[in-house]
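User: Show me a protein chain along with its predicted structure.
Assistant: Here is one chain, sequence first, then structure tokens.
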Amino acid sequence: MHPWKQIVAPIAAAFLPWPVFADEPAVVDSPEKAVAAQQAAAAKLSKPVEWGNSIGMKFRLVPAGEFVMGSANGESDEKPHRVRLTQPFYMGCFEITREQWETVTGKKHSDYFPGPDVPMNLITWYDATSFIKALNKQEGVEYRLPTEAEWEFAARAGSATAFPMGDTEQELAKAGWYAGNDGGTLHPVGQKAANAFGLHDMNGNAWEWCEDFYDAHYYAVSPMENPTGPALSTYRYRVLRGGAVSFGAKSCRSTARNYYQDSRTTKFIGFRILLPVATKAPAKPNPPPPKK
């Protein structure tokens, strides 16, 4: 609690019959704290840590929390700054796959790396948001792309290292596919170890679209609470996160930023989705639909 609240809150509480200040999100600065915050959020919200939707997509609960976003050891656009996310959310355990894309849209898509369980690729930011609109209509909820801050908080899962398990390429290889181990192709999702929140492939495999426009200087003016990025970007650049196959370890760091024009794509760009906890979510995990 901020110092001024420590003074004002007890005085106000003596005269008002309701709480004045809600508990602030905990600082999540270690994997152990990430797991503890996740479990505490699930208990407080009476929500499961993991659940699946009607087409078998799996999601993990990411609690509200405060963390240091960016890295002093990164590029110039990674200026470290404190961020506080005040609302929990469900993040997709995996990147959206080709099979899921075709199930929701009912359309085949020509991608570069075929296979039902590889991350969907060769899609623009607009393709990703169109998929989400179709899924929202089908599910009756409000999925969306994560903001850049939500993405980094979920990817780091309390870690202060370059990758979820440490700073070396050997530790990256435990969690992701990148130029050092990819064999020149995207891989089926979920084959590498999850981070402390239970999320897979946050580092490597395919770049992931975020909701935000990109600005190299945004971190210097970013609000502390729930930042959503600049209002616009030159050439309509949108943020990409996570790195990808054929890219080096430096690009796959949890803090590394990239960008691409939202109407263009490459064979290395995919996405994952988020569901705010405030919208409808199952009280318990749904079983995946039966295989046909």
